[in-house]
Amino acid sequence: MTLSENIDNKIKEAMKNKDSVSLESLRAIKSSILIFNTKKGGSGDLSKNDEIQILSKLVKQRKESADIYLSQNRPELAKIESDQADIIKQFLPEQLTEIEIEKIVSEIISKINASGMKDMGKVMGLATKELSGKADGKTISQIVRKNLS
Questions:
Q1: What is the pLDDT of residue 95?
Q2: Which CATH class is domain 3-89?
Q3: Which of 21, 32, 59, 149 has its CA 20 to 30 A from that of 69?
Q4: Which fold has domain 98-148?
């Protein structure tokens, strides 16, 4: 079953259950997929990588919005954003723990003989590609920075 078909089924389920938070989250995913498929030069076919990229972007947007709401002392709105991020995360591959990420980053560093912060770009490029969808960029960056300094 493709992501689009899965989302359509989940939307129907959320409508039946009158779950507005899930419905809003799922509609955001569907909208992003439609935009991706109809953009200029788009083939209309979503690869697994494209799906992960779209979903990761949506989760990141929700997290950033929640942080902004919390900084403005609006916890009720932050909770909605966090709940939506949790719903969208269900469609992403399972996230790795920091220990697992650290292990992969260490392997990359030793493989390319990175010796300091000047090699951060190389390490980040490889780590981001390998950990795509399995870890967020901020966590990867922190771990790379820690291992290179």
A1: 82
A2: mainly alpha
A3: 32
A4: Arc Repressor Mutant, subunit A (1.10.10)
Count of positions (residues) in the chain:
149
Please give the distance of CA 41 from its chain centroid, rounded to a whole number: 24
Taking a C-beta distance cutoff of 8 angstroms, is the pair 112, 122 a contact? yes
As a whole number of angstroms, the distance between CA 124 and CA 107 comes to: 13
- What pLDDT is attached to residue 41? 67
Please give the Cα distance from 10 to 8 (Å, whole number).
5
Query: Structure tokens of 117?
Result: 């912060």
Please state, in angstroms and rounded to a whole number, the distance separating the CA atoms of residues 30 and 4: 7
Is the full-model pTM beyond 0.85? no
